[in-house]
Amino acid sequence: MSRLRIHPMALFAAALYFFPYVVVAGGKSTINASEFLIWAVFAMGLNLLWGHTGDLSFGHGMFYGWGAYAAGRMSRRVAFVPLDLAVAAVVAMVVAYPLAKIIVRRATGIYFAMITLAIGEMFYFLAIRMTKITGGENGLVGIRLGKLAGIDLGRPANFYYMTAAVAFVCVLAAWRITRSPFGQVCRSIQQNRARVPFLGFDPVRYRERAFVYSAGICGVAGGLSAFLFRQVAPDTLRWTTTGEAVLITMIGGLNSFFGPAAGAVSVKFLEATLIARPERWAKLYWPGVVGAVFAVMVLVAPSGLAGVAQRARAVVRNRFAPGQDTPGAPPGTPVAPVEGTAA
Fold first, then answer.
1. Residue 295 lies in a domain
2. Residue 140 backbone phi and psi in degrees, to 5
3. In angstroms, how far is the first alpha carbon of the chain from the final one?
4. Contact 159/228 with Cβ under 8 angstroms?
5. 173, 174, 195, 305: least surrounded by Cβ within 10 Å?
6. What total of structural domains would you count in the chain?
7. Residue 341 falls within a domain, yes or no?
8. Boundaries of domain holding 185
9. pLDDT at residue 4 is higher than 90
């Protein structure tokens, strides 16, 4: 009899519903749950380019930041969250499109990472100088949240479930992209870029589109961040923002779809726990603790939390799988090979 198979996105939806209860049970707040989820969306947006196409960007903080600025500016005129987040995604993709045409065609590997880092820093300094739009070094304030279908989004629980709904849409879009023919070509580029042209595909075009799609998801995450904190600082565009997303993705699992989300929850929960501790060392040196955890994970489990979970699942399956022992024989007795097969 075949086993009942539940779609991974259905499991993800159930996890989103129960997630704030787990976070609160762990000693954190619903606001923390929203923050963890926003970082999960950001990391999965970055992983759409890095993990599924093979291009590591250190400049995706600029899409996260410009998405935050766009949503915050739009909320001052129209406090309607779906529209504001749509504007955030569009602005991020508009910024990404010409950059994709310039960068993707000219750089790969470490050169791609360094160029995106440089351009991200350029946008950071532009944000400081564009005081009429961004508020300069003081950042953008006065962001309005408003109501959605009569629901007050100012309440932490309501805001979380709005964030969860948006996160589900973003992750579903990423799921569809990675499992479409387009996504399969991107995976081929990630595995062996030199051979893709022999299959009749132009890897540059696919990398450009992946760059733009990834920027759109990161822009939505930035918009959610603006609504959560009700302000946007120019530091949001810096390479350090992207660097933290890279760390999260590595800890969660680069080649896994849901791995970056697990990494975001783990890293951000650890950060919130250390910052909240009364000891002075925890408040001053928590980045060092996170860095040490990252180093240990890279050395011990290079495939991240997703790889650890996969190995644990394989061990359990092999241990309890039916047919491993001969009926009537003591446990551990090898099964006799079938005639015609190798022993």
1. no
2. -95, 125
3. 28
4. yes
5. 195
6. 1
7. no
8. 25-239
9. no
